[in-house]
Design a protein that fits this description.
By secondary structure, the protein is α/β, with parallel strands linked by helices. 42% of the residues lie in helices and 17% in strands. It is built from 10 helices and 9 strands. The strands form 2 sheets. A 7-stranded parallel beta sheet has the order 3-2-1-4-5-6-9, with helices on both faces. A two-stranded parallel ribbon has the order 7-8. Helix 8 links the parallel strand 7 and strand 8. Helix 2 runs parallel beside helix 3.
């Protein structure tokens, strides 16, 4: 796979993915606010520009793959929106020109996009319209903003993946939607989430591991996953299926 850029590389999923890719012989260019080859704050326009410039220089202008994994949970919904959606989209759009034909790009969404009730569709639509100021203004509390931003990101991937800029140029774009993952970002939520029962069931009976997500990401980056285009793959221990068994697959209506 050559050189892979990974945002959120110092976090749980990002660091697990780095370890997996490097063990497989790939070179990883990590992007994060600490402990990374490229230090950049994806919540700001300047930080996003620094990310693109830094990865371009570090990669020599060529990437074999890209994973937009940077994301936060925070009480500040505007901050969550700027990082989780606009930072991810800026990563994918800004680094797409560096991707070789046949390369793979992946956005890390979340199963909160489909299992969290009461998400603001106004927030989702503002994100998809590309209006960051409007999206931040309606983001509300961070919990709701997290799910809405991840829903918007998954929909952006679905819309963009089939266009000329992506698969039309030979570049596969997909998303993964992990459920509750045992990682530093979620440590203080572990007992609460695992105890939600029917509100947020996890039929497998445990939290997911970052290494498990890394395994799926590594597969999607590989040529073995060459027929995946515009997919959103849920891996959540059964939560989405338990809550929404009849919602998907859904028949096409005319």
């Amino acid at each position: 796979m050559g050189t892979i850029a990974v945002t959120g590389a110092a976090g749980g999923i990002g660091s697990a993915l780095r370890a997996r890719l490097e063990a497989d012989g790939s070179t990883v260019i990590g992007v994060d606010v600490r402990d990374a080859e490229v230090i950049a704050d994806l919540s700001t326009a300047d930080g996003r520009a620094a990310m693109v410039a830094g990865v371009t220089e570090a990669s020599g202008g060529a990437l074999g793959g890209l994973v937009a994994a940077a994301g936060v949970t925070h009480d500040d919904g505007a901050l969550v929106t700027s990082i989780n959606y606009f930072g991810a989209v800026a990563t994918l759009e800004g680094l797409r020109p560096l991707l070789d034909e046949g390369a793979s790009a992946i956005a890390v969404s979340s199963n909160s996009a489909t299992t969290q009730p009461g998400l603001s569709l106004e927030h989702v639509e503002a994100c998809l319209a590309g209006d960051e100021a409007a999206a931040r203004a309606v983001a509300g509390h961070g919990v709701g903003a997290y799910g809405a931003s991840k829903l918007a990101l998954a929909r952006w991937v679905r819309r963009q993946a089939v266009g000329d800029a992506w698969i039309g140029s030979g570049i596969r774009l997909n998303a993964v939607a992990p459920g509750f993952i045992d990682a530093p970002m979620t440590t203080d939520q572990r007992d609460f989430i695992l105890g939600l029962g029917e509100i947020y069931p996890i039929p497998i009976g445990r939290a997911g591991q970052a290494a498990e997500v890394a395994g799926l990401l590594a597969y999607l980056l590989s040529s073995d996953a060459g027929f995946f285009v515009g997919s959103v793959l849920t891996m959540d221990g059964g939560t989405d299926a338990a809550l929404r068994a009849d919602h998907w697959p859904a028949a096409l209506t005319t």
